[in-house]
Amino acid sequence: MKAIALTRYLPIENPESLLDVQLDKPAPQGRDLLVEIKAIGVNPVDVKVRAPKDTIEKTPRVLGWDAAGVVQAVGPEVSRFKVGDRVFYAGDITRPGSNSEFQLVDERIVGNMPQSLSFEQAAALPLTTITAWEALFERLRISPTFAPTPPATTASAKSILIIGGAGGVGSIAIQLAVKVAGLTVIATASRPESEKWVRELGAQHVINHFGDLPAQLKQQGFDNVDYVLILNDTDRHFPAAAAAVAPQGMICTIVENSGPLDVSLLKAKSAGFIWEFMFTRSMFQTADMQQQGNLLDQVARLIDKQVVVTTVNQVLSPINAANLRQAHATLEGGRAIGKIVLKDF
Predict the structure, then answer these.
(1) Which domain holds residue 32?
(2) Where is the signal peptide (predicted)?
(3) Same domain, 34 and 57
């Protein structure tokens, strides 16, 4: 089968950083689905895993953690899917990724694809959707209300500051926060095009993450916010998040820190701090792995009801090393809006 892989971890400008290769087609075991990949999404985690280092792989390593495709075969313990089903998922970081014609994935972390979307539209969603959903409704423990319309900005509405609103996770988190949780959303964006993007997704207020966040919040009428979701540069934004969060509020981040974080800043407020990492369930084979498949099914229904929209903003074709290197380079540049997707081998 065709695949895009690496054996050395090189700068993306190097044509050997990602290579077109031929690999054996895998066979499903246990609860595995064998999925024929139709489209893949590209995420910052792909860039981080591929980042230059001295390691050399003995066999080609396939990356990629966003896919939409068709079930071609099932393992003997599979009960949720059958051959021919259209599915979407983010996969498992401990297993070969989705940058290949066929991939094995545990059925528990797979969702039924939204009926109203194309494969490329669906491939933009799984990793960011799982991350945003888990961050909001499991880590921050916000209650889904499935609000039919965005709430008015009132003193009684719960508020959330989403730092990095125009990226992949932010693009989904804004929609879920407004349309599913009924929150007032303040998103950060630094360019006119990214501000336009987050407003179209439902953010009622926009501030610049390169500026003084607490001061900008006050200018928008917020002395503090109930929740903060950090989606880029935890080290830089944590002090501002700690200053902005309300007493007994919560901060969640999805980005690892490079230095110590002064969590003592939260003590007087009795505020909380928590991580979100969407690969936790599959990495540790947790008892509730099925929750990821369930939430993808739930979001698929919201998409088909036009409550939530796909966040794809650029589609490249075909799926090959040259186009994937281009997508990685765009993400490394830090100016991507929404999601980049590749379709068709």
Answers:
(1) 2-125+280-343
(2) none
(3) yes
For the chain, the residue count is: 345
Distance CA 235, CA 264 (A): 15
CB 309 within 8 A of CB 7: no
Distance CA 242, CA 273 (A): 9
For the segment 81-99, what is each residue's pLDDT rounded down to a tens digit? Answer: 999 999 999 999 999 999 9
- 149 pLDDT above the threshold of 70: no
172 residue type, one letter: I
Distance of CA 144 to the CA centre of its chain: 19
pLDDT of residue 334: 85
pLDDT at 146: 61
Q: What is the mean predicted confidence (pLDDT) over 151-169?
A: 80
Residue with tokens 């280092």: 53
| pLDDT beyond 80 at 216 | yes
Residue 117 structure tokens? 């979307």
Compute the distance between CA of residue 338 and CA of residue 334 in angstroms, rounded to an integer.
Answer: 12
**First vs last C-alpha separation in the chain:** 10
Domain boundary among 228, 248, 275: 275
DSSP 8-66: EE--TTSTTSSEEEE-PPP---TTEEEEEEEEEEE-HHHHHHHS-EEEEEEEEEE----
Strands 184-188 and 245-253: unpaired
Among 220, 242, 275, the domain-final residue is 275
Please report how the helices 168-175 and 192-201 are oriented relative to each other, as an axis angle in degrees rounded to 10.
30
DSSP string, 144-172: P---SSPPP--TTS-EEEEETTTSHHHHH
Strand partners, 306: none
**Do 269 and 296 share a domain, yes or no?**
no
CA dihedral 292, 294, 300, 305 (to 10 degrees): -140
Query: Which CATH number does the domain housing residue 217 bear?
Result: 3.40.50.720
Cβ atoms of 103 and 35 closer than 8 Å? yes
Cα separation of 281 and 319, whole Å? 28
Q: What is the pLDDT of residue 156?
A: 56
